[in-house]
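Team,

Forwarding the record for the chain on the shared tracking sheet. I've put the sequence and predicted structure together so nobody has to dig through attachments.
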Amino acid sequence: MNTIKNVIFDLGGVLIDWNPAYVYLEVFDGDQKKMQWFFDEICTMDWNENQDAGYPLQQATEDRVKMFPQYEEWIRMYYGRWEEMLGNAIEGTVDVLHKLIADPNYRVIALTNWSAETFPVALARFDFLHLFEGIVVSGTEKMRKPFPEIYHLALDRYGFKASETVFIDDNHRNIAASSALGIQSILFKNPDDLERDLKEKGIRL
C-alpha cells in the first residue's frame, strides 16, 4: 500500500540548470583548471551558501573584494552576471512535476537553497514554479539545507508527516539530512532515474 502523500522538490540541479561555469569559462578563456581554482579559493560554494541563508549579496561581494582586492573584477561578476548562470529548465523533471501536480493524491512543494534577492528572477523566468502549493526559499527563511530546521519548517508549514513525504535533491548532503529526519529521500541523477525511483516508492506517474 502506498503511504506517500507529499513530494518535495529541490530546484537547482533538479528542475533548473544553474551553473556559474556558464560565466566563468568565458572569463577564463575555457581554462577549467583556473576556473576551478577560483571556485575553490575565491568565490567558494561555502561563501555562496551563506547568501542562500540570507546574507546580503552586496555585502557578501564587498567582504570578498576586501579579502581578495586583486580579483575584484572577477568577484563582482559572480552576482553581477548571476542571471547568465541560470540555464534552462530540466524538461524531463518538469514533466514529472506536471504529472504529480495533476494527481489529486499528492501535494507538491519545493524546498530550495536560493538567495531571496535572486529568486524573483527564477519566478519570472520559469512558469512551472507557480504550480507548487508553496516554495520554501532558504534566503527568505534565513536558514538552509542541510540543517534540520529548514526541513522541519517545510513539514510543519504544510502539515506534512515525514514518513508520508518524498524529498528529491541532487546533493548527497541534503539527502542524508532529510533521511535522518525520517523523510523518504531520492538522490536526483536524471529525469529517467527519478521516474523509476518514484515508482519504486509506489508513486503512480
